[in-house]
């Protein structure tokens, strides 16, 4: 997955964790659905004294776009200079979210490629060969 210059760049989950650890202003925005947060799990940033911002890009079950996404994020995070790392299941929704926030003036929006669960393995399962979970980063069940 490559970005087209519409946001700051693509980072893998390990580099994202390192940047979250290094920069006190850095924030992780998990753009998956409430069902995913509840049943699949959440990144656990407690070791960094942080919490992910949970804000759905699309609404489950129909996966309709959240028309208030930009407004809701802007209400939560008014600092447009700090680094924002967008995470979804596999890196697609987060890519769109990073581009949308860049378009309204946020200067450091990154897409977390591989996402929380990554791509499918040979058996069609996620979370085993790529992504936040497969890389052994902290997470917990919702």
Walk me through this protein's architecture.
By secondary structure, this protein is α/β, with parallel strands linked by helices. It has helices at 13-22, 34-39, 69-76, 93-103, 131-134; strands spanning 9-11, 27-30, 42-43, 53-54, 58-59, 64-65, 84-87, 109-112, 139-140. It has a five-stranded parallel beta sheet with strand order 1-8-7-2-4. Helix 4 links the parallel strand 7 and strand 8.
The Cα radius of gyration reads 14 Å
Question: Based on helices, strands and strand pairing, what is the structural class?
Answer: alpha/beta
Strand content: 15-25%
How many helices? Answer: 5
Helicity range: 25-40%
| Amino-to-carboxy terminus distance | 28 Å
Fold blueprint:
Blueprint: E1 9-11, H1 13-22, E2 27-30, H2 34-39, E3 42-43, E4 53-54, E5 58-59, E6 64-65, H3 69-76, E7 84-87, H4 93-103, E8 109-112, H5 131-134, E9 139-140
Parallel strand pairs: 1-8, 2-4, 2-7, 7-8
Antiparallel strand pairs: 3-9, 5-6
Q: Any descriptors?
A:
142 residues, alpha/beta, five-stranded parallel beta sheet, two-stranded antiparallel sheet, 5 helices
